[in-house]
Specification:
This protein has helices at residues 25-45, 51-189, and strands at 4-11, 14-21. It is mainly alpha-helical. It has a two-stranded antiparallel sheet.
């Protein structure tokens, strides 16, 4: 508990004793200086004012300052109510936005994983396609070689057929000659 203390202050040349806490001493002295300054300002502007009138007018001016400050404070409080009332809605919207962001981030990670998987599959498919292309090229070369061999064999078969026909002709002629000689020998025997 804070200790109560008597504080001596001077306002308009008079001494006053105010009871306050030890923590309030500077505050009380600042208030007294402010009131004293206001009274002196009014007295210096008008020499005909008595001490009571100067104090009264100073109190009136201070009351005016208080009223204006209170009015401004009320206005600021009213202005701050709307944002404070909307604060709950803003917090709710913020939480919804955070949830949406988390969902989108999770979805983004899934898309990244899917993209990576697709890229790997695409690379594998490309490698497989290159293997097939190389195998196809080898098969095409084999086919060309086989076609050349077939052509060569067809040419040999054709040449052999021609040779066979010529051999048959020769054989036919030899057989005719043999037949003729046979007939000649048979006639001789008879």
């Amino acid at each position: 508990m804070t200790e109560r203390k008597k504080i001596n202050i001077f306002i308009d040349g008079r001494n006053f004793t105010v009871v306050g806490t030890t923590d309030d001493e500077d505050y009380v002295r600042n208030l007294a200086n402010y009131v004293d300054k206001k009274i002196r300002e009014l007295a210096s502007k008008n020499d005909r004012l008595c001490q009571t009138s100067s104090a009264t007018l100073a109190a009136f001016n201070i009351a005016d300052e208080l009223h204006r400050t209170t009015s401004k404070l009320q206005q600021l409080e009213n202005q701050s109510k709307d944002p404070m009332e909307k604060y709950g809605n803003v917090i709710n919207e913020l939480e919804k936005a955070k949830t949406t962001i988390q969902k989108l981030e999770a979805q983004n990670l899934q898309y990244k994983d899917d993209l990576l998987q697709t890229k790997i599959e695409s690379e594998n498919a490309l490698k497989e396609m290159k293997k097939h292309e190389q195998a196809l090229e080898l098969k095409e070369q084999e086919l060309i070689e086989s076609q050349k061999m077939i052509k060569s064999l067809q040419d040999k078969v054709f040449d052999n057929q021609i040779e066979l026909i010529e051999t048959k002709k020769e054989l036919g002629e030899v057989l005719k000659i043999l037949d003729n000689e046979k007939k000649v020998f048979a006639k001789e025997e008879v």
